[in-house]
Amino acid sequence: MKLFIKPGACSLSPHIVLEELGLPYETEVVDLARKTTASGQDFLAINPKGYVPALLLDSGELLTEGPAIVQYLADLAPEKQLAPANGSIARYQLQSWLTFIGTEVHKSFSPFFNPKAPQEWKDIARANLERRLAYVAQQLEGRDYLLGSEFTVADAYLFTVLNWSKFIKLDLGAWPPLLAYQARVAARPAVQAALKAEGLA
Ligand SMILES: N[C@@H](CCC(=O)N[C@@H](CS)C(=O)NCC(=O)O)C(=O)O
After folding, report:
1. Which end of the chain is more exposed for a tag (fewer CB within 10 A), N or C?
2. Confidence band (pLDDT; 50, 70, 90) for 15?
3. CB contact at 8 A, 105 and 154
4. What sequence ranges are listed for the domain GST C-terminal (predicted)?
């Protein structure tokens, strides 16, 4: 398996999951501006969507979209319990979190990384982000991880997007449960390994 990544981008989420699972894999960095891979390949020929993460399977198939990739990976090693069993209500709760993080949190960061984004869009996105993070903080009160006491792939994704708050000067100190959560996830050896591999530790 090869995971196409950009250090620190949303591809960190499946990278963390791969480390948690301990499965063999490799990564290749993509230059997202030029749409070329580190080995000089045309990334658009690999993934016409032109974005990371993208997971190239040993079968030659390509899987895209972070929430699908992390669930695929978790299902490769169900004994690691990074996702509840398919069909269980807990699995749909996981998908609910993955969707929320993707559409309500991740994408609210987008204008801050877009040099062409007008200030008005950034202001709206920041207000949305603050509302959504307040909700997440409330949900994390009294629990270690999003689904309860066990780390799941949703935590890999939330941790990844929370990391971006420093780039937009959003102080997570406003939500103590989020700060505690961030430290808790960062302390996991697999998370440290992925961060180190991406030059972020
Ligand atoms: N819907 C995609 C979004 C992925 C995404 O936003 N990737 C960003 C990095 S975090 C990217 O590669 N952007 C470059 C581009 O769109 O050209 C997913 O959830 O996987």
Report:
1. C
2. very high
3. no
4. 87-201
